[in-house]
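Why do we care about 3D structure at all? Because function follows from shape, and shape follows, mostly, from sequence. That is the central idea of this module. The next example makes it concrete: a single protein chain, its amino acid sequence, and then its structure expressed as tokens.
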Amino acid sequence: MSVLTLQLAGPLQAWGSAARFARRTTEPAPTKSGVVGLVAAALGRRRDEDVSDLAGLRFGVRIDQPGTRIRDFQTAHHDDSGKSMPVSERFYVADAVFLAGLEGDRGLLAQVRDAVRAPVFLPFLGRRSCPPGRDIDPILHEGAALAETLEGQEWRASDWYQNRRRNDPTVDLTLLLEAVPGDDSAGEPADALRDQPLSFDPRHRRYGLRGVVARTVTLPNPLAAQAGRRTALPPHDAVQHLTRLNRDGA
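And the structure:
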């Protein structure tokens, strides 16, 4: 087995698993259907194409920076009649950072890695209005296991968030792993989440249930050694992008 890790960070993210009608909710962490949709788009697959190979990969995600849940209201008018549509309520996770992992066949994961680096359709973080704020940074870990890979990666939180935790020598992060038959390494009963993609076809989207187990990962805080020190302000020049003109205005 191999594992492909993906860094998911952006100003806004939305990972719905039970969004219906005018109320579009979000889970606190990326869903499997959302990440499979991202990589399927990168591979250039249309919504009505088969994604069973991608759905067969084991999924896990580590919450490096939980972010803040926010709510938005949207209005719209019908294109033909001009009548007002129902006000929709949409939820997002703001300023969050996650490290997602897909475990499975090396050949398939290598295709996904190359596609994410040069995607056919642009990736988005659960919703088209949520572009990534960083490089997704796909890394293939050959001969690795999902849980150990996610536990062994460095903390990916934003600099300002790490600086806020600089007095803590270690940080505890939540790790959500897809439960598989015969694997009791997590040690806790699995919760059920309906985000196992069966079809993205807009005429009959279908999702199945999958088990999710949670555990805590403790990582060293790289800024802990700087606790007690004053943090230098970043350089700032408000006119650095202006071009100096000569006396003739050229």
